[in-house]
């Protein structure tokens, strides 16, 4: 229970700084908030420690998942979902890839029960409660949206984008001659096919 409070309230501090940077930006609008969670000591009770937090009423949505594999349209298409993904990207960049807030879920812009993944050595003395593999998966799967652009965050998949551009320019120069087009080795087209399948 103490770890749960520690993780959520640490993530909440990052969310406050994110809000302070994002809210003044023109067109950004409302910023997701991680609600506080409190540890309560009940010495006379069989379970001496409990957590207390605000009750969230409405449709409960997972905007990000621990393993990054689940396809969630509300995460991808909703404003709250996009802003949660941008928050993850912002924290990742802010901590030089050492920390990632995961399991962003809640009602609308109010989030609870979040997790944190850190590199194996931790980050500034803090160790998260999720596997470091979540950071690797986020880096591989995150797709920037307009909110990432508003905050000036750097795309995480620059290597793939460079490959795609190089493949596209090769195809253009070869397209001028149909004879040359036939001569294009199959391998040269594979990176592009892989990337289009990824999107």
From TrEMBL:
<comment type="function">
    <text>Protein kinase that recognizes phosphorylation sites in which the surrounding peptides have an alpha-helical conformation. Regulates cardiac development and cardiomyocyte differentiation by negatively regulating Wnt/beta-catenin signaling.</text>
</comment>
<feature type="compositionally biased region" description="Basic and acidic residues">
    <location>
        <begin position="187"/>
        <end position="199"/>
    </location>
</feature>
<feature type="domain" description="Alpha-type protein kinase">
    <location>
        <begin position="1"/>
        <end position="156"/>
    </location>
</feature>
<feature type="region of interest" description="Disordered">
    <location>
        <begin position="159"/>
        <end position="199"/>
    </location>
</feature>
<dbReference type="Pfam" id="PF02816">
    <property type="entry name" value="Alpha_kinase"/>
</dbReference>
<keyword id="KW-0677">Repeat</keyword>
<keyword id="KW-1015">Disulfide bond</keyword>
<keyword id="KW-0418">Kinase</keyword>
<keyword id="KW-0472">Membrane</keyword>
<keyword id="KW-0808">Transferase</keyword>
<protein>
    <recommendedName>
        <fullName>Alpha-protein kinase 2</fullName>
        <ecNumber>2.7.11.1</ecNumber>
    </recommendedName>
</protein>
<keyword id="KW-1003">Cell membrane</keyword>
<dbReference type="GO" id="GO:0005524">
    <property type="term" value="F:ATP binding"/>
</dbReference>
<dbReference type="GO" id="GO:0016323">
    <property type="term" value="C:basolateral plasma membrane"/>
</dbReference>
<keyword id="KW-0723">Serine/threonine-protein kinase</keyword>
<dbReference type="GO" id="GO:0004674">
    <property type="term" value="F:protein serine/threonine kinase activity"/>
</dbReference>
<dbReference type="InterPro" id="IPR011009">
    <property type="entry name" value="Kinase-like_dom_sf"/>
</dbReference>
<comment type="similarity">
    <text>Belongs to the protein kinase superfamily. Alpha-type protein kinase family. ALPK subfamily.</text>
</comment>
<feature type="compositionally biased region" description="Low complexity">
    <location>
        <begin position="168"/>
        <end position="182"/>
    </location>
</feature>
<dbReference type="InterPro" id="IPR004166">
    <property type="entry name" value="a-kinase_dom"/>
</dbReference>
<keyword id="KW-0393">Immunoglobulin domain</keyword>
């Amino acid at each position: 229970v103490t770890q749960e409070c520690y993780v959520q309230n640490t993530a909440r501090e990052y969310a406050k700084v994110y809000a302070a940077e994002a809210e003044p930006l023109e067109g950004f609008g409302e910023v997701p908030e991680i609600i506080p969670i409190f540890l309560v000591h009940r010495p006379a009770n069989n379970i001496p420690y409990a957590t207390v937090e605000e009750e969230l009423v409405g449709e409960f949505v997972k905007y990000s998942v621990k393993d990054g594999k689940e396809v969630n349209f509300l995460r991808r298409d909703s404003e709250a979902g996009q802003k949660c993904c941008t928050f993850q990207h912002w924290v990742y960049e802010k901590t030089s890839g050492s920390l990632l807030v995961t399991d962003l879920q809640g009602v609308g812009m109010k989030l609870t029960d979040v997790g944190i993944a850190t590199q194996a050595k931790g980050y500034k003395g803090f160790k998260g409660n999720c596997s470091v593999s979540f950071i690797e998966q986020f880096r591989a799967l995150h797709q920037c949206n307009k909110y990432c652009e508003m905050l000036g965050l750097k795309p995480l998949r620059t290597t793939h984008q460079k490959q795609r551009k190089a493949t596209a320019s090769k195809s253009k120069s070869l397209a001028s001659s149909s004879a040359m087009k036939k001569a294009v080795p199959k391998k040269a087209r594979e990176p592009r096919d892989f990337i289009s399948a990824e999107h």
